[in-house]
Specification:
The structure is a single chain. The chain has 208 residues and is of the alpha/beta class. It has a single domain, classed as Rossmann fold (3-Layer(aba) Sandwich), CATH 3.40.50. Helix content is 32%, strand content 14%. The chain has eight helices and six strands; from the N terminus they run E-H-H-E-H-E-H-H-H-E-H-E-H-E. The two termini are 17 Å apart.
Length: 208
């Protein structure tokens, strides 16, 4: 099975480097490359090694608007399946704020001092967030395998992608290795038989 994990296009909060998790922002259309808005083929989402344009059988999305909007732009008319477990992290008291606004906040400094491992005050525990995302991905893959799907796209969030890639990378690269910019992501293969047997690793990983 061919799978792509793609981060949504930028929102205003992304541009201002804010913690945007549960806030349901829309994408900024001016941040979408013109050739994508015109639905022209391109190397990242279209032609690959001379083959025809890559089109998924369906697109799995976070329930948040920025992901659903991005999916419609990239894959217009494709069936969208919402996976609530793959939504972004709840940043609690930090939600909607950026580094400048949080500087001097003792709760923020405590979180920074923990290396980002402590739970966000009033929000989600980062480790529980990662587990949630991985659980959601596994649930979706079970459904896709049972449905005999062969080409699947996920349009989700940066943290979601990092969580999933860290969990199933055969080389076990750490979480922050998998940071991607808005509109980018990863393409990889999954061997369905191995996956169902419990050998859950991504193969032929490529950045897109």
């Amino acid at each position: 099975m061919e799978v792509r994990l793609i981060r949504h296009f930028a929102t205003e909060g992304n541009l201002e480097k804010r913690y945007i998790g549960v806030t349901d922002e829309e994408i900024k259309t001016e941040c979408v490359p013109e050739y994508i808005l015109k639905k022209e083929e391109n190397r990242r989402y279209g032609k690959k090694n001379g083959r025809a344009k890559w089109e998924p059988e369906l697109v799995i999305v976070s329930p948040l608007r920025r992901c659903r909007q991005t999916a419609e732009i990239l894959f217009p008319g494709a069936e969208q399946v919402v996976c609530d477990k793959m939504r972004e992290c709840d940043f609690g008291l930090f939600e909607g704020k950026n580094y400048q606004e949080l500087t001097g906040n003792p709760k923020y400094q405590s979180w920074i001092d923990s290396g980002g491992t402590k739970a966000f005050p009033g929000g989600e525990d980062p480790m529980e967030f990662r587990k949630r995302c991985v659980c959601g991905f596994e649930e979706m893959m079970e459904k896709m395998i049972k449905g005999k799907r062969k080409k699947i796209a996920f349009v989700v969030h940066g943290g979601t992608i990092m969580s999933v890639m860290e969990a199933f990378d055969p080389e076990k690269k750490e979480f922050y290795h998998w940071q991607v910019k808005n509109g980018k992501g990863f393409h990889f293969q999954i061997e369905e038989e191995k996956w169902q047997q419990g050998n859950r690793q991504f193969e032929e990983i490529e950045e897109i």
